Structure formats: C-alpha cells, structure tokens
Amino acid sequence: MTLRVWAPVPGRVRVRIDGTDGTDGTDHEMTRDGEWWSCETETGHGTDYAFLLDDDETPLPDPRSRWQPHGVHGPSRAYDHDAFAWTDRSWTGRRLAGGVVYELHIGTFTSGGTFDTAVERLDHLVDLGVTFVEVMPVNSFDGTTGWGYDGVLWGAVHEPYGGPDAFKRFVDACHRRGLAVLLDVVYNHLGPSGACLDRFGPYFAGESDWGPGLNLDGEGSDEVRRYVIDNALGWLRDFHVDGLRLDAVHALNDRRATHLLEELAVAVDALSASVRRPLTLIAESDLNDPKLVTAREAGGYGLHAQWCDDLHHALHVAMTGETRGYYADFAAPSALVRTLRQAYFHAGTWSSFRGRTHGRPVDTATLPGYRFLAYLQNHDQIGNRAGGDRLSAHVPPGRLACGAAILFCSPYTPMIFMGEEWGARTPWQFFASFPDPALAEAVRTGRRREFARHGWDEEEVPDPLDPATVARSRLDWAEPGEPGHRELLALYRSLIDLRRSRAELTDPALDTFDVRGAGSWLVLHRGALRLACRLGGQAGEVPVGGEVRRVLLTWGEAAAGGCSVRLGPDSFALVEAS
To answer: In whole angstroms, what is the distance from residue 19 CA to residue 23 CA?
Structure first.
C-alpha cells in the first residue's frame, strides 16, 4: 500500500505503522516529491498509522483519514472502500423536485444513537412518505456526542455512531426502502479540538467564532480546494450518498474568479454522469442570493437548492407571534404572503436585524420553487434557542396542523425535522462532549453569555456538557401512538400523500402560484386546489376564489359552501374549486 500526504510545511515526514494509539510501532521515512510525501508499506485494510512531522514525536492523524477508531487525536486506520458488499446496484437515485426531506441527527434519533439503531426506524419514514433523509454531520469530531459541526477529520465517519461500515449499512438500508440520503457537510470551518491540518500545510486562513476557516484563495490554496472537492466526491461516490447539504456557505471566504461552490458543482455534475444517478447540492446560505441556485448556463453557481430561512421566519412569526431578534422584520402583516410568493422576504430590502439592505429578488419566472427548502423547524431554529424548545411547546395542535398544511401545499421543497411529524414534546438542545476541561468550560460559559445577550436568563440555558442534555434531546418513540400525537402524525401522512397524488401541489412554478391573505386568514391557490387556513383569530368566512366542488382534507372547525370556507381559529380546509 502506498501512503501519501500533502505536507509542504515540514522538512521531514515519517509514518508510524501499527502504533497503539499512535504511541509506538514502526517508523518509516517518507520520500518527498514536490509538496507531497509518499511511502510504500506493507499495510492494508485495518492497519493503524500516523504521521510524524520534522523531529516532533507527536503522531498526527492523516488529514484525509477514512477511519478514526481511536478518536480525532489518535492514529488513522487504513480503510478499503471496495471491501464493503453493497446491495443497492439497482438504485437509480431521486430528483429533488417533488421530494420531501426529513432531517435527523443520528445520535438522538434513537435511544441507541447509532446508524444501526436508526435503520430500525426507517420504515417509519417510508410510511410517512418522505423521499430524502438528510443526516446531520457524521464526520469525526472530538468527544462522543455533539451536533457534528465541530468536525476536524472530514472523511472519517464518527466512530461512536458505528464508523464507516455502519454508515454504509445505513445508506444501503435507505436505498433498499426507496429513500435517498443527503449528508450535511461543513467546509466553512473546523472544530476547536483536533484541528491540526495547519501542521501539514497552508490549510487555514483566519478564525471565526466556530473555529479556523480554510485558505480557499491564498498561496497554496489549490490543494486546499482539492481537499474539499475530493472530500465531497468521496461521500457521493464511496458512501453512495445522494447529495450534500453545505453548511453556512456564506462563511466560505473565496475571492477567486471561479468560486469554490461553482467548482464543486461542476465536479459533482461530472460524477453524476459517471454514476448515472442524480446528485444534489443544497446550500445553507444567509446571503439571499439566487445566484447560488441559478444554473451555470445562466451565470449562476449551479447548486441545486438552498435552505430558505426567510420562509421559516415568516411562518414562525405567523404561528407564534414571536418578534425577537431576526424575527422582528417578519412581524409586518404582509410578511407571510410576500415571502410565500417570492421565497425571500429580504430581496434588496431593509433588514433591521442587520442594519442594512439585504438580498436580491428571485426571478419567479425562471427559478422553480423546488430549489428552495421550506420548513417549520430545523436543527438550528430549535437547537439555537436557549432551551431547545420546539414549536409544540408553544403552539396549539391546530396551528401546528395549519403550518404543516401551508408547508406541504406550497411550491417549495418541504423539510421536516425529526419528531415534528407527531408534535414531539422532547426538546432538541445544544450539546457537546469535549474531553478537554478548559474547552468544555469555554463552550459552557460562551453558550450562556451568548443567550444572555439575546435576552435569555443564563439559568435557562442547559449545560451543553451535561449528559442529561443529550438524553433530553432523544426522541421518545412511544409518543407517535399517543392521543394528540397520533392525529398529527396521520395528518402529516395525509398531506404528503396528497402532495404525491395531486400534481398541482408539486408544481414548482412560482410565477403561476398565488397566495392571498388578510388578518389571520390565508389562501394558497394551487391550480384547481385551494388551501384556506386561519391562524388564530375569530371564526369566519374565507373566500377561495371559485365554487367549492370537493373537500379533500380539513382540520378543526371547517365547513365549505359556495365560494368560501368557514373556518374556526387554527383550522384549515383543502378544497377543489371551479
């Protein structure tokens, strides 16, 4: 086996083979070839190895490690992708258009917190009707539990979840059930513990609140960019993942003529042609710039979709009345209607939270709605609240039902956060498990101070390092069968089934989509279908713009007749009209 490593910084590189936790073993000198070092060794699948730079005797893991069974500070382990026996050869993938996405965190989706225990719950997702499972980051990070965004070895699967073979078993099991898999990846920063890439080469450029950022446009950045793109292609090719969710791409500092995102999109499209299945790139972006999801032929970056926080914020304010922080701008009476029509609320308009104008308008005549993911909740919008409280902690069941109806009857790609479909009462809180006491205390203190600045009492903030915080955040799988939860779950299934059976509901055309509202009522026009909702307010008639011919689905006090629907507070009716 040939071991190679990009290391332009050190003047000498050795590799230590079969060391126990990297502390002993046999050292081999590596040969330099430009900025790369190589060594022929009698290693194979399952062999531990680590690098020694210059005369430092501290062994370091491989920056391109595929397996870290001893954690991020231990040696890497050689891993042969060809050794896994896949059963998904007939899998042809899924296109995002018309799909439903389900976001989950492996460590809290089940009580076991592993890929194998997650497989046991996949049939629930099939019965629900989702088509994409979006898995929060599974790259190797320091500690046993965490959100995954503090990863430092991006190609190695977190060992406490089961390691690389277990992740492949999970993907294989998803494909067997017709579920595509999206993986959340983080290229805008590395975590605060175990980030030693700069010992090898000029990987880093600056620090953020989250950790060191990558050198994407400075001297030596060609190989750093290659490092990112190879990592992305590895998940898609070697782990058979169907797409990537790119975390916080607005934090990628890249001033090159061809942005990293465009370069990545070109590489992924080429791989998609090779493996003959759709591969999807979904950005999380705070820029409100449709250029990200505009085709390269039209001057865009060519990503396939993006999370759309403006849609979330408008729905959240309409459902909860909360107007603190970035929710303030969405308190305007027309905010929900305006955002549903054009995807972005801030489209070259004033943002009081930012103190400046923000965003650019979406061309609704050319951009399809499916390129924007809409959601009532996600890991950020729940977990970055002081107590990790879900909508179900504040919003009555009828209003949750109305929110779900708007989500699934919109022209956007709907996304659900795990447990949302039954109104889970378990919170989803911020947690970590850094072994370093000083770092753990810094995270604990910093978290409390951050929330104090936003108006929460420090006492409201759970200790992120307390194992009880993780335990509270795990789903309770007894809830779906209980009264109240059972009915909401049935509604989600019905809405997803209608979305699948009625082409009007998956039509992504934004220029023919209409939504009207006044006060507490809202009507979405989807071809011959009308979704009439009342979020709170008083009972009354809601005009639907046509003669009601048939009622497809209702919740709460709802009665249709003539050209209107009579709705009580927190009720909806989905009807067919002439």
So the answer is: 6
